[in-house]
Structure of Phosphonoacetate hydrolase:
Amino acid sequence: MTEQQTAVPPCPQCGSLYGYPDGLLLICPECGHEWTPQGGAEAACAVLARDAHGTPLQDGDSVTVIKDLKIKGSSQVVKVGTRVKNIRLVEGDHNIDCRIDGIGAMKLKSEFVRKQ
């Protein structure tokens, strides 16, 4: 084992020894679980995001788009009422990472979605 592999604790969800650091989080490549080295699974969601109505969002939530959103560099539009399942919260201006059926992977701003 390399020095990096011994420094990263095993994944709390699946026990894999192949986790790696990514910024402030540790990531398991086998199951996709993310956690902080200090807080374990409870502190995994370090990003605080709220939808258009002020409801807190978490990783894995389903949301609905509340406004037509033009996709930059494309003629496609994400229509109002589009449902997005299994979101992932990330740092930055566009703080929702998701996959939309028929469009693909993209980032959204939390101010344009509503939690289901």
Notes: Residues 8-42 form a domain with the N-terminal domain of TfIIb fold (CATH 2.20.25.10). The two ends are 45 Å apart (CA to CA).
